[in-house]
């Protein structure tokens, strides 16, 4: 009985120490934090960067790995397009063959890649996964890539369209009013100028009209005198 009691006591004493070791082992492995842009817009034929950053609580080693996967917008299974472990391993099959390049730096917590010459069929969802043992548990951020033509990148929303429909006619009306006011101002100015000239002509013509009237009066008087003189001759 005494030996059994001593064994029980030793086991009880060992349990707390074992629990502390297990708890220390769990707490030492913190989840890795990974972040990526939720949405990226690219233009047809122009290289685009898919950014991905991470933060690990464990020292970086050669066991660190980076994996990028892709799922088309139309749906389908995941496709691994890039793998990194000390060196980059871009995919050698599929639509991204020869178009994926490594632009990250794991020493700075950067796991970004670049897509060269993107096409419309590249539209879809990309995910970035980073593992740095013992940090292997982490969130999986997703990036939605939208590739468009640069000429079609500007899309008119209903608000923008309404603004244009209201703004353009208003500008046209204002321009027409300004042109009309300018014409009226020009006509008034010309009338004033012509009015001044007319008045000066009229003033200069007044002596000529008076002289003509005097000559006509004199001629009339002379004619009357001639008639009277002819009537008096017989007598």
UniProtKB/TrEMBL annotation:
PANTHER family registered for this protein in UniProt: MYELIN P0 RELATED (PTHR13869), MYELIN PROTEIN ZERO-LIKE PROTEIN 3 (PTHR13869:SF20)
Membrane topology term: Single-pass type I membrane protein
Family matches, as SUPFAM superfamilies: Immunoglobulin (SSF48726)
Protein's organism: Alligator mississippiensis (American alligator)
Gene that produces this protein: MPZL3
Keyword Plastid (UniProt): no
Family that this chain belongs to: Belongs to the myelin P0 protein family.
Major location category of this protein: membrane
Record domain Ig-like: where: 31-148
GO cellular component, one term: plasma membrane
Signal peptide bounds: 1-31
UniProt keywords, alphabetically: Disulfide bond, Glycoprotein, Immunoglobulin domain, Membrane, Signal, Transmembrane, Transmembrane helix
Name the record gives this protein: Myelin protein zero-like protein 3
Pfam families xrefs: V-set (PF07686)
Listed InterPro entries: Ig-like_dom, Ig-like_dom_sf, Ig-like_fold, Ig_sub, Ig_V-set, Myelin_P0-rel
Source species, domain of life: Eukaryota
Positions of transmembrane segments: 159-179
SMART domains referenced in this protein's UniProt entry, alphabetically: IG, IGv
Location of the protein in the cell: Membrane
């Amino acid at each position: 009985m005494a030996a059994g009691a001593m064994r029980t006591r030793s086991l009880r004493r060992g349990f707390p120490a074992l629990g502390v070791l297990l708890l220390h082992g769990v707490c030492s492995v913190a989840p890795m934090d990974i972040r990526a842009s939720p949405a990226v817009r690219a233009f047809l034929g122009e290289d685009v960067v898919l950014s991905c950053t991470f933060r690990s609580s464990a020292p970086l080693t050669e066991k660190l790995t980076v994996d990028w996967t892709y799922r088309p917008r139309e749906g389908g299974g995941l496709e691994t397009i890039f793998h990194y472990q000390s060196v980059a391993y871009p995919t050698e099959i599929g639509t991204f063959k020869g178009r994926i390049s490594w632009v990250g730096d794991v020493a700075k917590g950067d796991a970004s890649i670049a897509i060269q010459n993107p096409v419309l069929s590249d539209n879809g969802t990309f995910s970035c996964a980073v593992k740095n043992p013992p940090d292997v548990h982490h969130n999986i951020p997703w990036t939605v890539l939208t590739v468009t033509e640069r000429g079609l990148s500007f899309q008119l929303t209903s608000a923008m369209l309404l603004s244009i429909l209201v703004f353009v006619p208003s500008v046209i009306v204002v321009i027409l009013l300004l042109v009309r006011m300018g014409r009226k101002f020009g006509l008034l100015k010309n009338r004033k100028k012509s009015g001044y000239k007319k008045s000066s002509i009229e003033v200069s013509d007044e002596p000529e009209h008076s002289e003509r009237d005097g000559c006509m009066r004199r001629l009339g008087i002379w004619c009357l005198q001639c008639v009277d003189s002819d009537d008096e001759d017989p007598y």
